[in-house]
Structures are given as C-alpha cells and as structure tokens.
Design a protein that fits this description.
It is a single-pass membrane protein; Single-pass type II membrane protein. By secondary structure, this protein is of the alpha/beta class. It contains seven helices and six strands; from the N terminus they run αβββαααααβαββ. The protein has helices spanning 16-32, 75-89, 95-102, 111-118, 122-127, 144-160, 176-188; strands at 47-48, 59-64, 67-72, 166-170, 195-196, 199-200. Strand 4, helix 7 (176-188) and strand 5 (195-196) form a beta-alpha-beta unit. Helix 2 (75-89) crosses helix 3 and helix 2 (75-89) crosses helix 6 (144-160). The protein is elongated and about 105 Å long.
Length: 204
C-alpha cells in the first residue's frame, strides 16, 4: 500500500509582539539614560578596594595638574549660584549665557572669563584651555573657589533647605600642598566631611 504524502505547510512566525517589546525597551533606555559628563580635567584616580557611591546632588571638586574644576550637579542650585557669584563680583551675564551655564556640568575658569566661554559654540568650548578656578585669596578677601562653594551651599539651603555633600576627585599624582589648600578652604567653611572619588582596584 503506497504511503500517503502529507503536504508540508510553511511555518509563519509572527514577530509583531517581539518588535513591540524591543521598541518598548529601547524607548525606556533612551528616556532613562543619563548623558556622560564631559571630563574637562582628566585625572588618574587613586586605587581603592571600595568605590563610594556619589550623591546625585553632590558638589564635585576635580583636582589635577595644579588646577581645579567644579561641578554643581543640581541645575536649580547651579543657576542661583551663578546669579549670586555675578552679583558678588559685579559681573553681568546674558540670559543666553545663563541658560548655557545651567546645561554646563563642569567648569574650571575664573569668573571674568566665564562669559566668553559660555558664548562659544560647543565645539570651541571643548578646545577651550582649562586654567582652573582661582584658589588664591586677595588680601583679606577669600578666593573665588571659596565663594563658589559658599554660594552653592547657600543656594541649596535657600531652594531645598539641605546641605550639599562635597566630593573630591583628585589625581593620585597631585602634589599634597595643593590638595591641602583645597581641604583648608573647605574646613574654613566647616566642611569637615567629604567623599573621595577613587577607582576600584581589580584583583589579578
């Protein structure tokens, strides 16, 4: 008796559900992703067996090559701090420059050079030389760095009634007297607790 041939049917795989899930995941990742901060002052972090968690609203002080940059991570605090600094030093900023500063994560210039920097296109800003925020006092007047820290913490207190934590991201090869000077400035404002940003030591 001859075998009955069964007709083979083409298998149809419906990919609609998988495509929907893929697009949902992609949308979620895009909406929740944070842009990487531009590192104006690349530093070689000291190694540590533990990596401390950095608070989202922390003031991050980066130290390298005897230069200092500052990052005020909360935008509302950043804006009010700039306004306070401008008033203190008698420097005016346009609304466009203020808006640009609000979107600037890290800066490392004297206040009198900041306006020119903010007016530049993004491509030229990346090439702008980082000279660092001045640490030297003039006579009995504290340094610009002192006032940036002071005004940032005052602004956070006014806006959110909280004390901003401070973190130091220092190059492991930086000279000790330069780092000590920054710590002294912090301690003069009764900031005796701060985080040290380190790189996690890997076991071989």
């Amino acid at each position: 008796m001859p075998r009955v041939k069964i007709k083979k049917r083409k298998q149809i795989l419906d990919m609609t559900a998988m495509v929907d899930v893929a697009f949902l995941l992609l949308t979620f990742l895009i909406l929740t992703a944070k842009p990487k901060d531009i590192d104006l002052l690349p530093v070689e972090l000291p190694l540590s067996t533990e990596q401390p968690t950095l608070a989202d609203d922390a003031i991050v002080i980066t130290i390298g090559k005897e230069k200092t940059t500052l990052s005020i991570r909360e935008k509302s605090v950043r804006k009010l701090t700039l306004e306070k600094m401008a008033k203190r030093y008698g420097i005016s900023f346009t609304e466009a420059e203020k808006a640009e500063f609000i979107n600037t994560d890290t800066y490392g210039l004297p206040l009198n050079q900041l306006s020119g920097y903010l007016s530049l296109p993004a491509v030229q800003q990346e090439k702008y030389p980082v000279v660092g925020i001045p640490l030297d006092s003039i006579g009995n007047k504290p340094s610009e760095f002192y006032h940036w820290i002071f005004e940032a913490r005052t602004s956070a207190k006014e806006l959110h009634n909280k004390d901003l934590p401070v973190a130091i991201k220092g190059d492991g090869n930086e000279k000790y007297p330069y780092v000590k000077n920054i710590i002294n400035i912090l301690q003069s404002q009764k900031i005796n607790r701060f985080s040290l940003v380190t790189s996690l030591e890997t076991e071989i």
